Amino acid sequence: MSTPPIINEKILGKFGSYTFVTGILLVALGTLAVFLPRVVSLGIAIFAAWLLLIGVGLLMLFYPVIGVAAVGMCISISLLLDGWALLAISWTLQKGAKE
């Protein structure tokens, strides 16, 4: 059986306030997401798109071959998910039309 890690009181005191502030911020953002789901969804989509754009751009800048492979994977995953979403919508509409 392993022993639990020893927590250094100095480090705990240094990061304890950051953890508390981060917790309060995440609770506030979660509450905002409950009351404004469309706005938060749009914000998350834009943020994720920028992260992906910057990440793939840097990857293509420093490692061009791997960057091209990453772009290909992103496009193929996007098309795959879009295809599954369209199939689900189609099946739902067909099921609703039969009832």
Compact summary:
This protein has 99 residues and is mainly alpha-helical. It contains three helices and no strands.
* Total individual domains: 1
* Sequence stretches where pLDDT stays below 50 over 5 or more residues: none
Q: How many DSSP helices?
A: 3
What is the helix fraction of residues, given as a range?
Answer: over 70%
Q: Give the H and E element order.
A: HHH
Radius of gyration: 22 Å
SSE-based structural type: mainly alpha
Major beta-sheet overview: none
Straight-line N-to-C gap: 59 Å
For the secondary structure, the number of strands is 0
Give the mean pLDDT. Answer: 84
Instruction: Label the overall shape.
Output: extended
Approximate strand percentage = under 5%
Describe the structure using short key phrases.
single chain, 99 residues, mainly alpha, 3 helices, 0% strand, extended
Question: SSE layout and pairings?
Answer:
Layout: H1 9-35, H2 37-62, H3 64-98
Helix pairs in contact: 1-2, 2-3
Description:
The chain is an all-alpha fold and 99 residues long. Helices cover 89% and strands 0% of the residues. It has three helices and no strands. It has helices spanning 9-35, 37-62, 64-98. α1 packs across α2 (37-62) and α2 runs antiparallel to α3 (64-98).
